[in-house]
């Protein structure tokens, strides 16, 4: 049975099925069947992902505007790319995005790994508590993010009240969403609240993948717990942590919904992440050509960074 | 097996038709019997629902409504118009959309219809015709029927102004009686006076003003100061020449004055407030003064807590250069992509009727018809009617160019960055604004 | 980890460690739950209680939030209200206490129904397409297989706003703007990458020998797929389906940009529920609560597959 390759056996069987229409459907060769199975997905992706992507690339070289469908479309070459890459506002948005991505990833990784480490101690009821911790990340960032504007209200919001309760400051003395220094942190807090469990879950899988015998061997060598953590736990969980960082990094680079509802990019432009800039250019100013160029730049950036990162990840894995 | 496949195919087909095509054809059930009207979600919209019941009763045409809050209103409906969607048959679109909607053929041109039905624009207040109907401005090309007159005005707590302790303290501090402010400086004094004061054991604040970032809020607010200080959108003699008009020394002073008011005299957390936040602040008794559109005044007057004799209304006070106010308000238009244009036009014809316009005002809408506004009894028909008339005589509107959204965004950013986020100086903000606007007009191919 | 380890094993944490770890985790869990509990509490507050200062933890429960969620109301004079008959139902009498009358149903239910149709429709399609392709990739030698799989995954790296720009133009041209079909196709295309990757993992785990045995018994390849592989993959398919469902259910960016009414889902709608002034927080909270309940249930059901789902099958427990 193992001698024959599966496909040759199938072909052989296929010939033996009774003739007729049924045969045409069921008796397909593996090759045909494979394409039959895969093609619909590819067609859908071509229609809804690739064709639009190509269109975006084309538009990014023109002055096209979606709200001026009748106006003549002029070929601009790489003008938009040049003006975007030299636009200080775009760089400001990129900095805001970088601040957001870096801090959320750092906080989520530290908290998430810490939690995973604690949960891995398998105290009583850890299953139930883990499920509870996981809840925020399953919810709609838009719907929940919107509610956070209520929690952040200076007078009546729970967040300010709790902070006031513990610090003794007046609850109305600070505004998380209205203050230029606090608002970049306001969005980091909500994202960390939602997505720390995500990192935790991946880290937990990493910790659980470390076989016990390694620790047992370390015990035999009388390695301290501290040393075990640094030389066994962390290195072995590292690929998982890096994976979590990759996923969170990509997601937060694309961040739109939560921040849009929480601050809309304000105050001023202090929380205007790249996606919000893009949305304003594309769907409020209707500078379709310009925003297409920006979209391509963003896509190339994510793609490039992710690829470099994956290479690093593979290096760590193969170590 | 064959049956399974067949069943699967049928199921798929059924699913697709039930979900997609079925959905696509739902408007067909309307078949001339129901039309959808799109507008903002606010008090006057509820009044319009009430008013439209008469239309349904008379014509047999059902009315559906799609109301969106102001902060999403422009975004949502311009998106809808640009997507050539047929959700809205009638749209009460903002005054600044008219240029884009006309040039891109999103609104049905109403000249022929007006002529046929005997509707004359001479029967409407000139400011509203220019503001809500015409494109290009000051030419007889009509794209809407003026539906809702509106402008920015102010409300104040009459009951607080009348308190002996307030009157005594105010006089001691400013050497004059407290009263409705005639100038923006007086307004600031009053706001500063109330800021942090205790009234009936509750800490209150000076004024609620527009500071919203996302849509148009802070622009609609700051304009009232800019106009009064001498800001002009462009050289009256040379269209689109903005240097020295948008960023003139007096305009800079106006912007600074607005920031001062924001910094000294607004409630905490008012960094992103627009119409509804203003209403909340005023209704909850937090503020003495509120900047808001006249549209809300009928509702505020009816409010059980702060309405009646506790509330007073005044027009935007004068500044050093002028006394002007920001135009609000909308005209009602028929959407080109509508499948029920005949019924939609029928609605406009009905709406233009004299009795309907009277009832519209009575229910809380602001009619633009001369038959209503020029009636001798109009100024006394509501405590804000006189102020409304006065305001409509001094309105200025934002750009109504096809690129209005972009122009607006630039101002939103520049002004919010300066006023709320403390970035740069007023001069830098307005210089930056000129730069942004020039770039936008240049992209449009405008010569200046 | 291994069942062989006894309580005294060197790698088992001590009772104290466990207790400390447990209390820290419980503390975190409680903090993290506060916002969610607050949403649910707010849903049952009256508007005055909801915006009281300091925030009220104890309050008289009210259904006003739910009433305001499901109805639209208009303010009337007391005289007018007195002239009406007795209130019809609970919501009407709540409204009348505030000098208002119920004018009609709100748009929440239609938006919720859109959410249901679009989420389930796109899930069905994505899982169907995903299962077929996953089987194809898992069992057959497909040319450029790795490239295709990577291509499928990379479609997820585009920021949604960037995808929405050409889709907006495309849908405008072919008349799919603001239609459920348009949204179903779009969500399907986003979800299909998740479905392929997840299901490929699940199907890879089903031993080929099962199908081969079936085929020796006279089944064709297709029959073997339907009668042997599909039943074996049921759990995986179910888990995948729920993940697709959650994505489509929670999605906001596409919905807010590509729908305006007929096909609008709940996420863009809930944040714009406003009362007479600003946001009507009890109504928003009520709408949010109803919207979150299904997801909370799914999360509890799914916890075994959660890791796999959220990492595209990159990590399996």
UniProtKB/TrEMBL annotation, chain A:
Signal peptide: none annotated. GO terms for cellular component: plasma membrane. Gene3D superfamilies: MalF N-terminal region-like, MetI-like. Pfam families: BPD_transp_1. GO terms for biological process: transmembrane transport. Residues 94-309 form the ABC transmembrane type-1 domain. It is a multi-pass membrane protein. It comes from the Bacteria. It is found in: Cell membrane. Keywords: Membrane, Transmembrane, Transmembrane helix, Transport. The chain crosses the membrane at residues 33-58, 100-119, 131-151, 185-207, 228-250, 290-310. Belongs to the binding-protein-dependent transport system permease family. This is ABC transporter permease subunit. It comes from Bradyrhizobium cajani.
UniProtKB/TrEMBL annotation, chain B:
InterPro entries: Bact_solute-bd_prot1 (IPR050490), SBP (IPR006059). It comes from the Bacteria. Residues 1-23 form the signal peptide. GO terms for cellular component: periplasmic space. It is found in: Periplasm. Keywords: Periplasm, Signal, Transport. The keyword Hydrolase does not apply. The keyword Transport applies. Pfam families: SBP_bac_1 (PF01547). Belongs to the bacterial solute-binding protein 1 family. PANTHER family: ABC TRANSPORTER PERIPLASMIC-BINDING PROTEIN YCJN-RELATED, ARABINOSE-BINDING PROTEIN-RELATED. This is Extracellular solute-binding protein. It comes from Bradyrhizobium cajani.
From TrEMBL, chain C:
It is found in: Cell membrane. Keywords: Cell membrane, Membrane, Transmembrane, Transmembrane helix, Transport. It is a multi-pass membrane protein. InterPro entries: BP-dep_ABC_trans_perm (IPR050901), MetI-like (IPR000515), MetI-like_sf (IPR035906). PROSITE patterns: ABC_TM1. GO terms for cellular component: plasma membrane. GO terms for biological process: transmembrane transport. The chain crosses the membrane at residues 20-41, 116-137, 149-171, 183-203, 224-249, 281-302. Residues 112-302 form the ABC transmembrane type-1 domain. It comes from the Bacteria. CDD domains: TM_PBP2 (cd06261). Belongs to the binding-protein-dependent transport system permease family. This is ABC transporter permease subunit.
